[in-house]
Amino acid sequence: MPIEVLMPALSPTMTEGKLAKWHKKVGDAVKAGDVLAEIETDKATMEVEAVDEGTVGTILVEEGTDAVPVNQPIMLILEEGEEAGDAKPAAAAPAPPAQVEPEPAPAKAEPARAARAEPAPRKEAPAAEPEYTGETHSITVREALRDAMSEEMRRDETVLLLGEEVGEYQGAYKVSQGMLQEFGAKRVIDTPITEQGFAGLGVGAGFMGLKPIVEFMTFNFAMQAIDQIINSAAKTLYMSGGQMGCSIVFRGPNGAASRVAAQHSQCYASWYAHCPGLKVVSPWSAADAKGLLKAAIRDPNPIIFLEHELLYGQSFDVPTDPDFIVPIGKAKVVRAGSHVTITAFSRMVGLALDAAAKLAEEGIEAEVIDLRTLRPLDTETVVASVRRTNRLVSVEEGWPYAGIGSELSAVMMEQCFDDLDAPVVRVTGADVPLPYAANLEKLALPQVDHIVEAAKAVCYR
Amino acid sequence: MAVAKRQASAPKRTAKTARLDPDVLVQMYRDMLLIRRFEEKAGQMYGMGLIGGFCHLYIGQEAVVVGMQSAITPDDAVVTSYRDHGHMLACGMDPRGVMAELTGRRGGYSRGKGGSMHMFSREKNFYGGHGIVGAQVPLGTGIGFALKYKGTDNACLTYLGDGAVNQGQVYESFNMSALWKLPVIYIIENNRYAMGTSVQRSSASPDLFERGAPYGIPGKQVDGMDVVAVKAAGDEAIAHVRAGKGPYILEMMTYRYRGHSMSDPAKYRTKEEVNKMRSEHDPIDRMRTALLDNGWAKEEALKAIDREVKDIVTAAAEFAQESPEPDPSELFTDILVEAKAA
Lengths: 461, 342
Hints:
Chain A is an alpha/beta fold and 461 residues long. Chain A has 15 helices and 22 strands. Chain A folds into 3 domains: 3-89, CATH 2.40.50.100; 135-319, 3-Layer(aba) Sandwich (Rossmann fold), CATH 3.40.50; 332-458, Rossmann fold (3-Layer(aba) Sandwich). Chain A is 29% helix and 22% strand. Chain A starts with a strand and ends with a helix. Chain B has one domain (13-319): Rossmann fold, CATH 3.40.50.970. Chain B is built from 12 helices and 8 strands. Chain B has helices at residues 13-19, 22-47, 62-69, 85-90, 95-102, 136-149, 168-179, 199-202, 227-242, 271-281, 283-293, 299-322, and strands spanning 77-80, 126-129, 156-161, 184-190, 193-194, 197-198, 219-223, 248-253.
């Protein structure tokens, strides 16, 4: 059978084109790579090359023909031993599969909630958190994070810590104090100031089965590395059809510190929580910081672990048992109440508890939920609480637009529409780059009184 | 550390060729031809609408990956960017799985979820297939880091183009790999054009093999259209990194015959330039001529290889069209690895 040369698609969007010029005539010898014709598309003139060898048998479309549809036979090439008489166009070219309208993807065809009900998100349902009844000691968040890393590094040779000033300097915020001395320079690695480079290096090492903990001096600097975090770490498992994941923790202080202005004071919770392929954790207490960081290091996925500089020095009771782990994906009710639910994470949990104490003086019992994990978000715990209190105040340090509170508001619409006695109120940072001046900075960040006012408003008090 | 001077590799070629076993040369011919025929078929299938999106063909550059692969062992790792079909075939990945990924079918290496630019094989130590220009360079550096951390003497071949070489993260990687003496060979495939911008128009310093000099990384420019010269340079580089001396840079002077991607009409260069490269420097034609002229292979044997390669490519194309599309349930799989019980 002669070989049919079809009108090619020369771009992802081309459906037809002009056959501008033939470079071969009937009887010419053709070998792979020879230019056969020039085709004009809506964008450019392109050359069509031969893939097969033989002799030109018949030219089916004359030079200068406009609007030749993609996949129409335009030439017949005779293979060795074939005669021109064989060169008749097939009556009807078989329609290639690509011409068939593709099946619509389920996500497009069904509403968002149906897509969410697919099995994948379900699988993320966390194991129930065991009640810890053992011994505790009072340590700072800073020490809890260090203990979590050190315990996991003792347990697993493939865990290592990488970042700026993590070794000899003992950590820019002293989180890795003593670790270089215990584990040596092979496993506690001072990097140059080169966030994109060492984040990517960590991901590459992760593909190879190492479990790097990549410390960013602050998450503000991780913006230099965000391509490696999203495109390389978060997406490769999916793009490889499940072959090549990467167990890696990106951690460091997130959010506003104190008087360091806009470039050094930003909450990245909603940025990372937006992205499939990541888990995003942001603890408040030292016990959760330890238990969740250990879980993050053991997790086979890329984890964003958002700490807070202003919490590093705060002390909490922390379990001493090295097997104490807090499951990722589980919120925690840190104060029970029946009148209003207040959700918060990281430093804002402390403010929410202070607000709850003030509210109690006025007879309002607030339930405070520490979200702890922002992706996957434990909506179950929040929904169960709101079904009792019928009110939700969401607190976060970051900006309001498309924030964690926006997501919670959507969850309330979807799952608690009939339970709400008041619209959800979001207490957030002001929608401005964080200012330096002390008074302006205070105005830009959520304060205890903002939470008190919001809670009273939803209780109509 | 001294940077090797620009080498005129052409006069030495015959001597180097003579030292290689003819069987090795025949194998190189076959491996290059497989890539060429595979890519021509991919181009044709793209034209038929069977392959979508971006499709960057490797035609013309075959000697680079085939030569480098012959310098390493299967335990060494390879990572590259998006012009990756040739690298995968050179690593020994199944042409059927590669082609089926191009058509977005479940028989593809990424089960249809990656496409032309995103394929991987743990088995063959191929770490992608990455779509962001330059991003594979820190990744390859990290793979080298892990190989050293684990105490192996293996290396990671990290390929990048003459466009990527102007990305900042490339120098972040050079700095770290030189500082920590990581076993990484950076192979700059200089095909002269970053999409449509020539090296002369994009690079203040066009001698790309010298880009590691400030970090003390030795660099060498190689005739990337000569598979034997590539292998010789690869042998030297791999000996350097295996000895624990840190990274090495090879600038491969090569050429792509086709456009940057399928939809590139390539108006930034002349037809004469392309034709001259094809007729005078084609790595496959050169090898074929050398094999026949020196009596290292008979015409019949090479014809048999041509037929074998054609059959492999035909089978790959058939598989890639017969393999079904991914099951819709695949939409929600492989987003996260399920955690093992702690």
